[in-house]
Amino acid sequence: QITASDPYIGSPDIEITTSKFQYIRVTMRSQVKGAGQIFWAAGPSRREANFNAADVDNFSISADGDFHTYYIIPSWKPGTTLYRFRIDTPEGPDKLVEIRDVAIMERNVTGDPPAKPDYDFSAPGSAEFWMPHQDMESMSQENGAMKVHVSGAAPAIVSPPFEITSTEARFLTLQTSVTDCSQAEVWYEIGSGFSPPNRHSFQIIPDGKFHTYNIDLSEARGYDGVISRIAVSLAGAGTKTQWLLRSVRLGPAPSGPGEIVLSSLEIESAVVFAGKTTKVYCEVSNVGGEIIEQAEVRLTGIGGDRRQDISSLDASQSFACEWDVVFSESETSEPE
Predict the structure, then answer these.
(1) CA 27 to chain centroid
(2) 170: closest CA among 226, 213, 217, 214?
(3) DSSP-based three-state secondary structure for 218
(4) Closest by CA position to 313, among listed 262, 260, 255, 265
């Protein structure tokens, strides 16, 4: 129970060597919403290890009456000795904060992560370099992909640290499979920690099949300078959402296999009449990183079947076509 300002709870004495693959897991519920903080005391000896204002990481605490599991990726320097840490909660006189468990976890990594942000999750152990962040239970490696076990609306996973300029990392290439969620986000760390403005949203296809997405981050707000980490998140996930990732890459150009998607499909007029000619406009795009050859666009189900051949379509290019369509009586209805 909170009885005064600056409430916190401190850990017992510990002695742990820090690493860049550790995270803190806190399961708690709170009657007060706001910013939580993790302070830590590390140093060459227990006597010299003190709390200070610079050694802190922030996280957001909900107050909806339910227990939540929070994952905090500490910004402590690897290779130092940690002797104590503490959890600071938002202020709220007479409010209750219940902590079910606290643990310092470490990913079971073998070797070093790639020097550049290019992650292929078909390689054994490659998923272990990534960290859980929020709204998820765990991550596992299954059938050449990383599976994220979703538990909330905005599951997020965090990459290992790296250093790359925004120019070198203009495109995010993602090969992923998702169900029951049509929007994703990439977060990018410039400096220390993820800042809420440094996020970019994009649409995904929730059909449970693997698709390639090449996201141009030069259009993202504040994407400038040295990028040191990214997170990939879903927005609006549900209890039935399934999420798999085959690969994540940052690079100067689109990459991955070619893939055609429907960009737009429009009818010339909002009202069409049986027996009258109406134009139908279609545009498709290659969102992959390789050229596509000998493809075709088909229009079926209205006014008969129509096709348009595409001899080749380069990465990031679009192809537009139009057809003259005559709707039959059965394909129209009288306005009421």
Answers:
(1) 22
(2) 217
(3) helix
(4) 260
| Ramachandran angles phi, psi of 218, nearest 5° | -65, -20
Q: Locate tokens 């390689």: which residue?
A: 123
Other Cβ atoms closer than 10 A to 29: 17
Q: What are phi and psi of 217, to 5 degrees?
A: -80, -5
* Structure letter (DSSP) for residue 121: T
Query: CA-to-CA distance for 39 and 162, rounded, in angstroms?
Result: 24
Are the CB atoms for 204 and 178 separated by under 8 Å?
A: yes
Kind plus residue range of the DSSP H or E element containing 274: none
114 CB contacts (<8 Å, ≥6 apart)? 162
Q: Rounded distance, CA 22 to CA 161, Å?
A: 12
Cβ within 8 Å of residue 239, ≥6 positions away: none
Sequence letter at residue 122: S
Kindly give the confidence (pLDDT) of every residue in the chain, 336 residues in length, as a single tens digit, with 9 standing for 90 and above: 999 999 999 999 999 999 999 999 999 999 999 999 999 999 999 999 999 999 999 999 999 999 999 999 999 999 999 999 999 999 999 999 999 999 999 999 988 899 999 999 998 889 999 999 999 999 999 999 999 999 999 999 999 999 999 999 999 999 999 999 999 999 999 987 788 899 999 999 999 999 999 999 998 999 999 999 999 999 999 989 999 999 999 999 999 999 999 999 999 988 888 888 999 999 999 999 999 999 999 998 877 789 999 999 999 899 999 999 998 888 888 766
Quote the tokens at residue 242: 């399934």
Contact, 61 vs 119, CB < 8 A? no
d(CA 175, CA 245): 6
Closest CA to 121 of 149, 135, 140: 140
In Å, how far from its chain's centre is CA 308?
A: 36
Calculate the alpha carbon distances from 199 to 131, 231, 298 in Å: 18, 9, 36
Terminal Cα distance for the chain, rounded: 64
